[in-house]
Amino acid sequence: MKKTLPAIIAHAAVILALILLMGFLGVIAAGVAAEGSEKFTGELERNVTLRILENDTAKEQGYLKELLEAFNKEYAGYGIVAVDANMDQYTDLEMGGPYGYGPDVLYQANDALMKYVDGTRKHILPVPVEKLDCYAHVDDNAWDAYKVTIDTQEFVCGVPVNIQQPLLYYRKDLLPENWETEWDDDRNGVPDMIENWCDLYRYSQLIRQQSAGSKYGYMKSLNDGYFASGYFFSYGGYVFGGEDGKDTTDVGFSKNDGYLGGKIIRQLASVMNLECTEDTITKNSYSRMAQGAYFATMTTPDVYTMFLKEMVLAGYTEEYAKENLVMTSVPKLPVSGDLEDESQGFREMTVMGGVNGYAISSYTKAPNAALAFVNFATSYNMINRRAELLGISPARGDLAETLGGLNATINENLADGTIYVMPSVRALAQVWTPLQTYCAVLADDALTGKNAYVTDDALKKGIANVDSQIYAAIHTLGGA
After folding, report:
1. Of 263, 28, 256, whose CA–CA distance to 123 is shortest?
2. How far apart are CA 467 and CA 435, in angstroms?
3. Which pLDDT score is estimated for 143?
4. Are 372 and 77 in contact (CB under 8 A)?
5. pLDDT tens-digit map of 262-299
6. Of 73, 95, 203, 380, which is most buried by a Cβ count within 10 Å?
7. Which residues in 236-383 belong to E strands, given as ranges?
8. How do 105-109 and 49-53 pair as beta strands?
9. How far apart are alpha carbons 270 and 429 in whole angstroms?
10. What is the DSSP string of 85-99?
């Protein structure tokens, strides 16, 4: 059927409108990285409201409330008001941002934030970091987690707040009374089960035997890929290859002697129970540690206050809890890759880590006010307060040095490379399911007596299959 001239014109108008709309969205998507820095003129927008997306712990412990109140008081003369975005901490900016539903400023881990600038996606702005008070005080390795190269030009799209790495938490009051004579072979005043995984493994066996399975030594959900990956890294495995660790065509958990990480996981499972094959231990570790049912676990420094809270609820004074709940570096691994063989000595464990920080949405209508908020939130005083309330390890080197202890150590670990920073690429999302499934299978294999992964060959094939699954999810199935 022939179209009339008005119909042809109307049809053409629709097509033109669609082309213009797609072009407009394309400018937003592809242009903000190149032009984003130009949005930060230094002239503060007035009478604006900033929606701030923080994590749940910051809300629960009262830090976000303090931060917002302090910032709003400082910028009251400009009419700038920062409010809680009242969104889930894992809200996807890509889904809501273009439609005006996303936050202006968001706090997340580097891999979560940088997926918004991966490929053609440009949902967060490059930040003129040299304007920030924290700039000179944050190590290059932390800034690197937020760097991206677009059209041969390098940008920084996030501002580091704290460094995440797994740490060992243990109850000092649950050490054996004779630890100084029986569990301190080198007589250095530190219990052996805190210093190396072999002795922690043996002590866990002892606790389980003596309590008839009602109490445990080391307990952790071994299906958690973030924490489990460190066992593979420690023996030469890696996530992705390339100089920047972002070459997704080279998946490397099985490379070098990475398979030995699987052996360690299987052995650790043998001193636990089937809850380690799923998320139960992660969920109950706070209360079970407080009740004395677990001697030790592994998690990140920013949840320290959650353990303290549970110990107080269990009837301990806060002073007693702080004295006996100890957070320390993860133990060393045996060079042999066998928890029952320490004849070759020990090596430092390389752990999966990350750099949590702030980013500014490309869709904010007040970029200068948002930058002012980020500058305020990453100031010495506010990061110090965050450390006090949340137990985080600050990325600011000046503050980490002042606080000392583990804070300085974690900054050193990042510089030394014993923290394997999560690759800031979207494809990282395809890693977890294959890796976590394999780790759960290993744990189940040990606890149920299936013994399908006892030999080195079986362990090598198992982790090589994980690499293949990850590669296929990214490149064959289009999961990137």
Report:
1. 28
2. 8
3. 95
4. no
5. 999 999 999 999 999 999 999 999 999 999 999 999 99
6. 203
7. 238-241, 247-252, 294-299, 325-328, 333-334, 346-347, 351-360
8. parallel
9. 29
10. --S-TT--HHHHGGG
Provide the 10 A C-beta neighbour count for residue 393.
29
The number of angstroms, rounded, from the C-alpha of 116 to the middle of its chain's C-alpha atoms is 16
Over residues 249-270, mean pLDDT: 98
The tokens describing 390, both together, are 């949340």
Residue 355: its H or E element: strand 351-360
User: How far is Cα 438 from Cα 116, in angstroms, rounded to an integer?
Assistant: 29
Cα–Cα distance measured from residue 455 to residue 452, given in angstroms and rounded to the nearest whole number:
8
* Length in residues, the chain: 480
Q: 350, 107, 144, 403: which is closest to 234 by C-alpha?
A: 350
For residue 182, is pLDDT > 70? yes
Distance, CA of 368 to CA of 360 (rounded, Å): 10
Report how far apart, in Å, the C-alpha atoms of 154 and of each of 26, 33, 112, 148, 384 are: 21, 10, 19, 6, 30
Tokens representing residue 361 in the block: 């949405």
User: What angle do helix axes 260-269 and 456-471 make, rounded to 10 degrees?
Assistant: 110
Q: How many CB atoms lie within 10 A of CB 423?
A: 23
Could you read off the pLDDT of 443-460 as tens digits, one per residue?
Answer: 999 999 999 999 999 999
CA 400 to CA 104: how far, in whole Å? 28
Decide if 435 contacts 229 (C-beta within 8 A): yes
| Identity at 255, one-letter amino acid code | K
Residue partners of 309: CB distance under 8 A and separation at least 6:
286
Rounded to whole angstroms, the Cα distance separating 309 from 293 reads 16
Please state, in angstroms and rounded to a whole number, the distance separating the CA atoms of residues 53 and 103. Answer: 6
Predicted confidence (pLDDT) per residue in 186-206, tens digit: 999 999 999 999 999 999 999
Sheet holding 294-299, edge to edge: 216-218, 294-299, 167-171, 325-328
Specify burial of residue 209 (Cβ count, 10 A radius: 0-12, 13-18, 19+): exposed
Percent of the chain with pLDDT over 90: 76
